[in-house]
Structures are given as structure tokens and as C-alpha cells.
Amino acid sequence: MQDKKIPYKIYLEENEMPKQWYNVRADMKNKPAPLLNPGTLQPMTAEELSGVFCDELVKQEMNNTDRYIDIPEEILDFYKMYRPSPLVRAYCLEKKLGTPAKIYYKFEGNNTSGSHKLNSAIAQAYYAKKQGLKGVTTETGAGQWGTALSMACSYFDLDCKVYMVKVSYEQKPFRREVMRTYGANVTPSPSMTTEVGKKILAEHPGTTGSLGCAISEAVEDAVTHEGYRYVLGSVLSQVLLHQSIIGEETMAALKKYNIEPDIIIGCAGGGSNLGGLISPFMGEKLRGEKDYRIIAVEPASCPSLTRGKYVYDFCDTGKVCPLAKMYTLGSGFIPSPNHAGGLRYHGMSSILSQLYDDGYMEAISVEQTEVFKAAEMFARVEGILPAPESSHAIKAAIDEALKCKETGEEKTIVFGLTGTGYFDLVAYEKFHNGEMSDYIPTDADLQVGFDGIPKFPGNEI
Amino acid sequence: MQDKKIPYKIYLEENEMPKQWYNVRADMKNKPAPLLNPGTLQPMTAEELSGVFCDELVKQEMNNTDRYIDIPEEILDFYKMYRPSPLVRAYCLEKKLGTPAKIYYKFEGNNTSGSHKLNSAIAQAYYAKKQGLKGVTTETGAGQWGTALSMACSYFDLDCKVYMVKVSYEQKPFRREVMRTYGANVTPSPSMTTEVGKKILAEHPGTTGSLGCAISEAVEDAVTHEGYRYVLGSVLSQVLLHQSIIGEETMAALKKYNIEPDIIIGCAGGGSNLGGLISPFMGEKLRGEKDYRIIAVEPASCPSLTRGKYVYDFCDTGKVCPLAKMYTLGSGFIPSPNHAGGLRYHGMSSILSQLYDDGYMEAISVEQTEVFKAAEMFARVEGILPAPESSHAIKAAIDEALKCKETGEEKTIVFGLTGTGYFDLVAYEKFHNGEMSDYIPTDADLQVGFDGIPKFPGNEI
Questions:
Q1: What integer pLDDT is reported at residue A373 of this predicted model?
Q2: What are residue A420's phi and psi, to 5 degrees?
Q3: Each residue of A327-378: pLDDT tens digit?
Q4: Could you tell me the CA-to-CA distances from B162 to B33, B143, B237, B356 in Å, in that order?
């Protein structure tokens, strides 16, 4: 079964690990649109952004030109504790499917946060510490980002306040204990501890929360407390920059064994994993050196790329954040409560939105029962219990591999296995008990979200 | 901080992975005492054992002479999916402690079973499949072994029935869902589905169960159903054989970087991890080639090595299994319900018991609140959330490193980090809330267990 030239798992040596992040914006002809001040509708200045973000991260957020940015030594040291992550050849999945395709996955789940989120968390915590801050605030959905940030803050001895989407807080009590082990303070969102939380609860008393709400609360908490800044685990360009370590390691591991991928697949919520995984490959594509099919996979219940509008919108439900140009379902969009796991953000990274709009990548949506079927099959043959988010990519990779089975093509498929599902067993239990349902929003459902998108000249939907 | 010659994590290449298990019994002058038939008090014959175990595993159980046993290709393939495990240099822990000691840990938690248990599970499932069996039965305490066996059975398409110690079943509902994902059937033990379960429940209506009870039920289930055999995740000599992969990889990784360990530390329940980790090092010690301090760490609430008797005893509470000569607290011993996590078996592997009795290793016991303190400190600096079981070894390693701090000695300490604590968050929550207590059995408490040890000539306690 095994191609003896290719091991099951490709690990880079410590000295082969990337020492710079790759900034895909440097290679984009059409740069992602700048963040706008919602009051003036003018691009946010560095000074305006520095009230919310650390100074160094503001620079990274606005840097559309430097192709490579050095990773500070302290961050490299932390990366060495849990990276490089393995690039795994899915020999057993290939055999199970009977496909001539060669399937690889970059597995980011082998750390206690359970996902790739730690790659950016440690960078953001480092810059906050370097600036002499007391602590940071953030939101978390499935809990992976909150756990990652808790770990990073613990490492650098920073205070960490996490607003956790209420539905996840209730479904995942153990996530709270992990964050507590690392010393974080966790609040279910929407909460009564912020003005914006109170307002959202007054308007939607029964809401199970959304990432958009939690972002609003975390931002308010940061800007109203001396010595705190807000940090975000996805969507932002700085996050994609940090996550480029995933793609760089993947590319280095493939090159080490002279493997040429044909298709690269990532699950897409706010874009952190997808953007990180594809960055260096997209760079080659943008520079005309290589051609790859790049596929974003999103939940049918939260379909920002496949059914959203490409306009300026608020990043948060409370409308306290800058406007970002992105594929969006409207900042008021909240996925149906039957939606399990993460990938519940209403918008998509500005970088990925621009690349998608320019035709450099494809996007598809999948329904969650199909996703869990793929997850269970994967677990049984490859051994790893995948996170529901990651399983969107598994589902798409399986479908592509089955197409190869029909055509006989020996394509090489690479997908991002962003994390493990150890804290998602309530969802797995629902699936096993036949209690999991699908939900595809109607056009009318989506229109409610679109109606909340700000209207100004040039921002017609 | 980093010694640039030694990476944070040492991974063997796939072609450097061991291809044989090492059988420490071959190097023991005093062989472990044979299993006895409880009726005749004569050594169990292969024929008698084959009613309970697979034929090939019976051979391994009785093999005191072959130093190396080839690992079948199918098992090597499975090992390649999640092995080699990393040998990690605990640079951050060393820094936190301010010790001149060099600390390494062999981390076995990077697989979905969350521990080293998969190393033997896949071997036992393979031999069961090869023999044409329908399925296997087993017990599980903390749930790691049950999960591992579920994964292994799923891979080889075998039926898997798991009797789970009731206290763990109730404290760890998510473990059940993981096993279910892999298709296993899980029953809380003691149960009403077996005769021995009914008997134990009649005698101890409020019991929270023990490994000893669960073993009795699983054995009864196997011997009363055609095409089933019983498999066990610890204690047996065959299990230590399979787990020798841990020690062999550790030794190979150390040799790759010319590292000479002084102290080797493992947590000890039934002995699977400890026996596996130390085997090849013990072999060098037995052959007089090297000298190492080897330390077994057990819970103060279940102190088989440090306070048990070295006699023949039943392996299970229901007294349906053969007698094994081992350090034991008596097969009726059940740890106090406030004892969290695994390491709750009343006895200790016959191999380790003999080695301990012969003075080749030391044993200490530690209290659980101290263990959780060590676990939390470790998590915060090394990033990994450890299993409570593994944290016994962490505690001992920290103590040895602090002794080095006092003396200034630059000793090299290697310990086994057997698994992750993702499914132990109820225990962590108790610890965080100050609700965790310690329990050290009194001599009178222990006497109750000792009174149940079988009495026959030569077996006086």
C-alpha cells in the first residue's frame, strides 16, 4: 500500500523550519481593500487602529508590500515546542476510497489548543507583551482560539479575557476548564458585562450568540480598560500572515519529497487556516510560476463566499469595529442553532475575498451531516478524530478523490486538517444518535442579514 | 535558553523506527513467575491460556527467552500513522525550575486514544484478526485503553466490547462517544450483563467499580461467547513487550544526539507505560552495560509497589483469572472514590514486580493534589495539558530536577509523558475549585485487601 519513497508522515527538521512569514499581499496585483473608519468612511490610519491593536500588529495589518517578515526569535522558540506539524500521506484513506489520487493533509491538531490557532495567538501575545501591555481581550467560537490565546498569554504572563459564544460555552464546558488551566477569564457572550452585550441581549433575548457579538464585547472591553488591546484569531490580514507558517511548512515538506500538488483544499470560516495554508502556493500562482486548483470549503449554513455579497461591512454585530471589504452575509447574520462547531463568522478575510473575486480560487459549501459522515470515515481509517471545522475539508478532499477514481487521474490533493474534535463530542453524539440536521438558509433568510450592510456610495449590494 | 545542538523535539525518521519489540525477560536472571491455574496451583499451560487469549499472544506471554520479536508489517504500517512519538527536551520547564538538570519526555499523547495504549491495542487486535476471531472484550479505567482498542478494532474490522469502570464512565461521557465513533460497545462496570457483575453488585451495591471488576466481566463475556477473546491493556508481559516500542524509540532518539540519561521515570498503574519505557534501558542495566536510576511513580491512594505484598494474587476482583505473582494490594482493593484518573489497578506487572524485588528499580508514591499542581505548572510552560496519570511522572521529574538545583548536578532526566488530559477536565475542574482531596489508605484499610489474597503453601504474606 505504501509508496516506500514517501513516509506516512513528513516532518521537517528543526533547522528546516521557516524563519519568516510570507505575506501574500505583496504578490497581489489587486490589494485587499483597506479597513474604513465607519464614521468618516476614510481608510483607517495607523493611529486610529493602535487604539484597538498593538502597534506592531497594526504595521503588519497595513503592510501590503513586504513579501517576507522575520519571525522574532521568541516566537520561533515557542513554535519549536509544537511545530513543525506533520504533513501526512493519507494512505489508509486512499485505500478505503480505492482512488488513484494521492492525498496529503497538514495536521495542525497536535497541540493542546487542538488547532492551528496557536500560530497566531503566540505572535499576538508576543507583540502585546513587547509593548508592555497588561493583557488582551478576545472572542472565541468553538473555543480553539480562546484556548490558544490562553496558552500564549500564560507563556508570556499576560492577562487574558475571553468572550465565548454562548452556544459553545454551554456545549463545551471543558473548553472553559482548559482555558482556566492556563489562567484565562472566560465570559459567555452576549453578556451583561459590556454595553454592547446588554444592547444585543435586549434586542435578541434568546440569542445563542455569534462571533460577531463576541467580537463587539471583546473590543469594548479592550478600549475601555487601560493597558489592554483586542486580538482576533481570524479574518485579519495579520492573522493570515502568521498562519502562513502552515503553508510554508507544507510547501517545504512537499519539496523535500518532490511532490507537486494539483489541488489545495481548506475549510473556511474567517479564513485563518485557509489563508495560511494556501498563501505560498497562491504566491506562486499570482506570480505565474505555478497553477493550482485552490478550493475553499464552507458550511452550507454559513455560506459567506458562495452566497455572500462582496462589499464593505462591519466586522462585528455591535458595529463598533472598522468596516472591512469582504464577502459577507451581513454583520447581523447568525447561523442556525443546529449548526455545530465553528466556521460561523458572517464574513471572510479581505485578502481571501479579493483573491476569490479575482478568480484565483474556488469555493463550495457542504452540509453538516455529510461533513460528519466524512469525519467518522476519516477517524476510522486515519485514526485521528477530526474537528467538525476541519471535516469540511475532509469532505471536499474525499469528493475530489472520488472524482479521480471515476476518471483514473492520479491527482495530488493536499488539504488542511486544522484540528481535533476532542471537545466536539456533543456534536458527534448528536450525529451518532441521528439527531443532527442540516440547514440551508433561504434567500429570504439571507436578505435579513444583507439588509444590515451599511449603505453608502460605492457600497451598493 | 536552547542548546542549539539539541532540538526541542527529536523525531526519528520512518526508516529509523524500531522493527522489533524488545523482550526484557530474555535478559532477566530471575524470570517473572509464571501465571498459575487457581484450581491446581500449577503453571498455566498454553492450552489453558488459549481459551482466554489469542494463540500468538499466548506464545508472547510465555516467551521468556527471545530477546527480540519481529513486529509484523501490518502493525508497523499502523505505527507509522502515529509514530514515532517525539522525545521532547523540556527547555521551558528547565528554565521555569531554574535547574541545571536536562529534562526530556517521551510524549505518547499525539494520537486520538490520547496515550501510549494504542501501541499494544493494535498488536492485540492484529493477532485476533489473524486468528479469524469475531471480536474482543476488554475493560477500561480512565478510558484510554478502551479508546485505543476501539481504534485498533475499527482498523481491522473487529467487534469490540468494552467494560468501563463505572466512575470513569460517569465522569467521562465523552470517552464513550469517541469509542462509539470507532464503533465500540461500551458498558459501565460492574454491570448486570455478566454473572460476576451481578455478584459484585450484590455484595457492594454502591461500588464505583474498579479495573479488577471490569476485567472479571470482560473475561466472562469472552469465554462465554464463541469467536471472542479477552485482551488487556496493561499488567501482562505481552503488553510490556508491545510497549517496548516506547523505550526503543527513546533510546534511539537519545543515541542520535549522544545523550546519556541518568534517571528514567515512569508513572505506574499496571506497568504498561513504565515497563515499555524502561525495557531497553533495563536490558542494558541487567546485562551490566550501563547503570541508570529507574523510578516508578504511583499514586499514594493505590500504592501497589510501595506498600503492597509480593505474592501470588488474582488479577481480577471476581477471581476468574489466573493467579499472577506480583506486588499487590489484594484483588478486592478499590481505590477511594476521590482518586482521579487511572493508575487504579491493585497489582503490578509480574516483570516489573520481579525487577523491583531484585533491586533494579526504585518506587515512590505521590499525592494527587501535588500531582495536579505539577500538571498545571507543566501545562503552562510546556504547552501540553497532561493526563493525571502522566502527571505522576512529571511530579517526580520536577522533584529530581529541583534536587539537581540544590546540588548543582547537571543530571539528564527522562520521563514518560504517557498522554493528554483532554478527557480529564472534571478532575482539573475539581482541582481549580479547591475540591480535590488526597487519600492515603491506612494500614487497616490495606489489610482488608490483603485478607483476600489466596493462601497456599509458599504464598504467605
A1: 97
A2: -100, 160
A3: 999 998 888 877 777 788 899 999 999 999 999 999 999 999 999 999 999 9
A4: 29, 9, 21, 31
B53 and B63 Cβ atoms separated by less than 8 Å: no
B155 vs A405: CA distance, rounded Å: 22
Burial of A405 (0-12, 13-18, 19+ CB in 10 A): middle
Residue written as cell 523535500? A256
Q: Where are the alpha helices (DSSP H) in B383-442?
A: 388-407, 425-432
- Residue A191: phi and psi, rounded to 5, are -125, 170
Instruction: Judge whether B336 is closer than 8 Å to chain A, CB to CB.
Output: no
Query: What is the average per-residue pLDDT within A232-246?
Result: 96
Average pLDDT over residues A183-189: 95
Nearest Cβ partner for B178 among A7, A77, A385: A385
Across A171-175, A182-186, A192-196, B321-325, least confident range: A171-175
Top residue of B88, B112, B381, B423 to mutate, by most chain A CBs within 10 Å, is: B112
Q: Which of these, B318, B324, B320, lies nearest to B347 by C-alpha position?
A: B324
3-state DSSP assignment of residue A138? strand
ipTM: 0.92
Q: Which residues of A touch B19 (CB under 8 A)?
A: none
B338's CB contacts (< 8 A; 6+ apart) are B301, B436, B437, B438, B439
The answer to whether the CB of A128 falls within 8 A of the CB of A72 is no
* Structural domains in chain B, sorted by start: 9-17+83-114+243-450 (3.40.50.1100), 21-69+117-230 (3.40.50.1100)
- B266 and B393 Cβ atoms separated by less than 8 Å: yes
Peptide bond into A190 cis (omega under 30): yes
CA distance B434 to A225: 30
Asked if residue A422 lies in contact with residue A143, where contact means CB atoms within 8 angstroms, the answer is no
DSSP state of A17: S
From CA A264, how far away is CA A428, in angstroms rounded?
27
CA angle in degrees (0–180, nearest 5) for B345-B346-B351: 85
CA distance A163 to A139: 4
First to last CA, chain B: 52
Are the C-beta atoms of residues A342 and A325 closer than 8 Å to each other?
A: no
Cell triple for residue B236? 501482562
Specify the amino acid at residue B23: N
Cβ-Cβ contacts under 8 Å, A151 against chain B: 383
- Helix, coil or strand: residue B174: helix
Cis status of the peptide bond prior to B72, with omega within 30 of 0: no
Q: Which of A1, A14, A177 minimises the CB distance to B432?
A: A177
> Is the Cα dihedral A273, A275, A280, A284 positive or negative?
positive
Q: For residue B232, which phi and psi values (nearest 5 degrees)? A: -130, 140
Residues of B in contact with A420 (CB under 8 A): 112
Residue A171 has pLDDT above 80, yes or no: no
**A39, three cell numbers:** 464614521
Examine the pLDDT at A2 and tell me if it is beyond 80: yes
Strand B228-230: give its sheet, edge to edge.
B185-189, B159-165, B135-140, B228-230
Instruction: Provide the pLDDT for residue A342.
Output: 79
Which residue in B8, B81, B420 is closest to A81 by CB distance? B8
**Bridge partner list, B112:** none
CA distance B10 to A449: 50
A385:B422 CB<8 A: no
- B residues 62-101 closer than 8 Å to A (CB): 77, 80-82, 88, 91-92
Which cell goes with B243?
Answer: 510497549
Nearest CA in chain A to B157: A380
Q: What is the amino acid identity at position A225?
A: H
Q: Do B382 and A7 touch (CB under 8 A)?
A: no
Between B350 and A344, the higher pLDDT residue: B350
